[in-house]
């Protein structure tokens, strides 16, 4: 493992920052104190900043000292800052002080890794071009990346590629994983509101039972995955809620189904949404009911561009060795709003192993160290590793021959 000595020497400082952020979590678009901390650190290190993109976003501007062929080029490195609305079960010293809020996904660590890289960049800028350090708000359901794009991040800070990183529990510490193409799925949610006609449960012929309509719709929707899409195209359609009725002897007027759809391509997503609407309309017509379908496309799939995925694998090999790089990791049906950046620019999103949870200090919760779990904690051993990866990525990217 080839870690940079100045980053290792400052690891205690970066760990303290990470734990400060963990103890003071802020939800999406509320990252005011976190953004202030990030801005203060960057400013103290002499790095110019821009604030306000996406509400609480911070962008640090690091210009290399080289004057070579890539001097006019730029890349973006992104970390997310927001926490989750989860009550933390851990009781160690840096546990959350804010009730009902917790850094249960490691965004505190992501921020600390990029800050550690920023401090190194403030003293060592051995590359051409410009590195933009993107500290993004509201990854957890808020679409902060989309908001930053709408606020003009790529207009204000033109860049040739953008890169992201997320800790991955269960993956061994010292390991990086990525894949060309889809790495994470799209995230979408739906609500189906069925209107029938209520009646006494002993006289069902007097009504139009929305419960039976809901049951038939729930069963029919599964045929989209098994009979409409190609078997080799991955997709998930999960009905997670059915709400209807108040008592045992009354057929209700309405019923509601809610759920999620996950896909790795927009083409499969288009197919699923279209078939859902057709099936709901057809089943309701058969029963004499009506329905409204609300289909929300939250995050698109996270799709790494092949050249950048291969490049990131090479960067990781330079840091941790070939044996610790998984260049074709199995994609996950989880979602990530870094996908919005990848719709605009080439780039790659990588996983960095967070281990099995053995790193947690005394007082941790009894649950597993999984993402979005109240017993989770980021592994501070990753901070110098992730920061070194960011630095090597920038140096190696600008060392390449990028022809227009």
Word description of this protein:
- The chain has 404 residues and is an alpha/beta fold.
- The protein folds into 2 domains: 5-184 and 301-399, Zn peptidases (Aminopeptidase), CATH 3.40.630; 187-299, 2-Layer Sandwich (Alpha-Beta Plaits), CATH 3.30.70.
- It is 35% helix and 24% strand.
- It contains 11 helices and 16 strands.
- The protein has an 8-stranded mixed β-sheet with strand order 1-2-4-3-5-16-6-15, with helices on both faces. A 4-stranded antiparallel β-sheet has the order 10-12-8-13, with helices on one face.
- Helix 2 packs antiparallel against helix 4, helix 4 (107-123) crosses helix 11 (382-399) and helix 7 runs antiparallel to helix 8.
- The relative contact order is 0.20.
- The model has no long low-confidence stretch (mean pLDDT 97).
- InterPro entries: Amidohydrolase (IPR017439), Bact_exopeptidase_dim_dom (IPR036264), Peptidase_M20 (IPR002933), Peptidase_M20_dimer (IPR011650).
- Residues 189-281 form the Peptidase M20 dimerisation domain.
- This is M20 aminoacylase family protein.
- Pfam families: M20_dimer, Peptidase_M20.
- Keywords: Hydrolase.
